[in-house]
What we know:
Elements: E1 9-12, E2 39-42, H1 61-72, H2 84-87, H3 134-139, H4 153-161, H5 164-174, H6 181-192, H7 201-208, H8 216-225, E3 245-246, H9 262-265, E4 274-275, H10 297-305, H11 325-336
Antiparallel strand pairs: 1-2, 3-4
Helix pairs in contact: 1-5, 1-6, 8-11, 10-11
Amino acid sequence: MTGKDFSNRKVRLLGAIGAILLLIGGPLGAVAAPEEEYELEIPLGLDEDQFVVPGDNPLTKEKVELGRFLFFDKRLSQNNTISCSTCHIPSLAFTDGQPVSAGIHRQQGGRSAPTAINRGFSKVQFWDGRAATLEEQSVGPLTNPIEHGFPDNDDVVAKLNKIEGYKNLFNKAFAANTITIQHVGKAIASFQRTLISGNSPFDRFDYDGEEKAISEAAKRGKILFFGKARCNLCHFGTNFSDEKFHNVGIGWGGEAVDIGRYKVSHDQKDIAAFKTPTLREISRTAPYMHDGRFATLRQVVDHYNGGGVKNPFLDNQIIPLKLTELERQDLVEMLRTLNGEGWQHVTVPLSFPE
């Protein structure tokens, strides 16, 4: 942690609002209203300099609202049964509470749904980092045969283009009379960037010096986290992730091995390596690990305390920790203090564009 002042503030991420855009061939031949910037509040504890917004997709209220509709709309699946929110449920801190997620026709994938919170502080996306941007991640599941089930992106776009209400919303957000898959990705990504967690008890203790914000056990856990337990070797920075990929000894107990990052990089060192997840909201986002094998934080701590499961590609940072019973309890208490605020504003739409 840097000690930088992270008091609440609003960050203007759009920049200057452009002039009114003429819609060439748009519905009714109308002139679009100027895009309205979205003022994103960065809570205590987070570093606004690490927040990623591409230059070609500035945050606007129109895109965020459109993305909210798309995120919750089950029509963004081939048979109208699955939405993004099926696996990223607001009440479960935008996870689904399952070891592995189920998609269209109740098919099960092989990995747990990571939280959608604080994705704006992350660059490459998914457990294996196969999506270079949040925009790319936002449309990836749509054409996955066991997730949203569309044959290809053209089918996604064709379906949306038949819904007049969506055509109007895309027109307002992008000043375009035809929906593209790039527009879909930009809108959903814009909404996801508003899902932020900060101002946790840990932040109030660490940055504001609020002594009573966390318990004495959690204070001892903090010392362990940055010391004997070595958690900060991978979980560092204000989002508690190094944004890298590690083999931590998961999936080597005799079952078929998920090769993880290797499928993307084809680098042997990445066999069974997975992206370091954020620890923000960690006690609300069980179960844990890429395959959801651990139901509790204590089980996760016990796994690392034992040094993981030995395998030829185990990260050299994973070693037995020799934590006592009390130390393991204290570490779990510290992790529970990372539940924050900034994402609870999201509401499910009562109706969708027709």
